[in-house]
Amino acid sequence: MHPQRQARVARALKVFSVTAYVTGVFLLLLVAKMVYVYLIVGKENAPGWLDYFGIVHGLAYMAFILASLDLGTKARWEPVKWLTTMLAGVVPLLSFYVEKVRRNEVRKTFALH
């Protein structure tokens, strides 16, 4: 395998991993916010700054989709793998698991450390 391709895939993998974790963390915060607002205090008593969790998760998810496309293109994934990877950003805790699985796959395939 050409070293330049390995380097491109390694960079894409790093961005993918970071965006997967950020997306996962903000999705968990968003779920916690929804439980707090809708089950504990009520929407009218909730602080307004909690709304930013949803906004940040949305932005992080868009970055995660772009990072998944970038890594998928460079690693030459099948479209089904792209789709399942991208959907992991909307299921709580799944982005952490899928990131680990994809990271291990890519590291093994491209002999990355």
UniProtKB/TrEMBL annotation:
A GO term from the CC aspect: plasma membrane
Topological category with respect to the lipid bilayer: Multi-pass membrane protein
Record bears the keyword Transmembrane: yes
Transmembrane segment boundaries: 20-41, 48-68, 80-98
InterPro entries registered for this protein in UniProt: DUF3817_TM
Keyword annotations from UniProtKB, A to Z: Cell membrane, Membrane, Transmembrane, Transmembrane helix
Ranges for domain DUF3817: 13-101
Database matches in Pfam families: DUF3817
Principal localisation: membrane
Coiled-coil regions listed: none
Subcellular location: Cell membrane
Protein name per UniProt: DUF3817 domain-containing protein
